[in-house]
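Letters spell out the chain; backbone shape is given numerically. Both lines appear below:
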Amino acid sequence: MATETQPSTGDALDAAQLADGRARLYTLLAHLTGAPMTADRAPLLAAWPPLQAAYAALPTSDRARAAHYETILGYQIPPFGGLFLNPDAMLGGPFTAALARFYATAGYGTHPHSGGDDHLANLLSCLAHLNAAESEAWQDHAPPIAHKTQTLQRHLLENFLLPWLPPLTHALHQSRDDFYAAVGELLGTALTDHWANHGEALTPPADVTAVPAPETLPSIPWLLPPDLPDLSTAGTRTIAGFLCRPQQAGFYLSPVDLQRLGHHFGIAAGFGGRRRQLETLLQTIPLAELPALLHQLATHAQQWDDGYATLALQHSPLVPYIQPWRARIQATRTLIENMLHQVATT
C-alpha cells in the first residue's frame, strides 16, 4: 500500500477552516428553516446582506414571526424531501427510509429539529454535523477520517439534498416572501458551491480506506419519468393527484396557488389537501371555463420551467439535477394540451 501523502499544516488548517465555516452556515440555515426566526439570531445574518435586509421586513415580535414561519414553511411550502421526491408526495416512503439508514451510517443520532427525518432542517443539521467532524479531523491531523466525512457529505448532497433543491428553492422564490426567498437563495448558493467545489477535496486518495457507501434511494425514483394519466379512463381525482405531486408534474402547486385559481374563477377551493382542492376546481368549474383553467395551469408550468432555466444559468453545476424536473414539466404540458384537445372535441 502506498504511503499517504500528509497535507501541509497550512493546507490542513485551510481545510479545517472551510469545513468549520460550512458547518456554521448549515447550522444557521437549519435554524432558519426548522424554527421561526427570533431576534436573538438576527446578528447571525450580518454576513449575508440580502438576508439581513429581508429580515428587516419581517414582523417585529417573536410571536408574529412564529405565525409568519408557520404560514410559509408550515402551510404553504412544507420543506420535506418526501413531499417533493416521493411519487405520492407523502411523508415517509422510500426516500425517508433510505435517509434514516444514511443518518445511522453518518452517526447522526439526535435530530435537533422536529418534523421528521426528511425535514430540510434535519438534513442541513446532518450536513453541519459532518462538516464539523471534518474540521475536527483536519485539526487532529487525521486525513483518513476527514476524507471519510467528505465521502458522507457527497452521498448526502447527491442523494438527499440536491435532487429536490431546484423545486424547493423555486417554490420559496415563488412564495412572494422576501425573507424565505432570500433563505432559499442562500441555501441554493451554499449547496451548489459545496457541490461544485468538492472536486479533489471530496475524493479520498486511493490508499485511504473509504467508508462503505451509504444506501441510496432504491433505483433513485426521482430520475424515472412518471406515467402520464390515460385521459380515456382517468377521472378528475387522478388528474388532480398527478398535478399536485411535484415528482410527477415537475412543479409545485401550493395552497396559495390553488386559492388564487379558485378566486380567479369565483370558485371556493374547499377544504382538504391540495389534491382535494384542485379536484374540487376541476369538478365544479363550468365546461365553458375549463379551457381557461387549463391555460392557467399551463402558464404555471411555463413559469416554473422559466424558473428552472434561470436557476440553471445561476448555478450551472445543478443542471443534471434541474433537467429531470424540466422534462417532467414538458410531459405535464403535453398532458394539459391533450386535455384541451379533449375538451375542444367534446
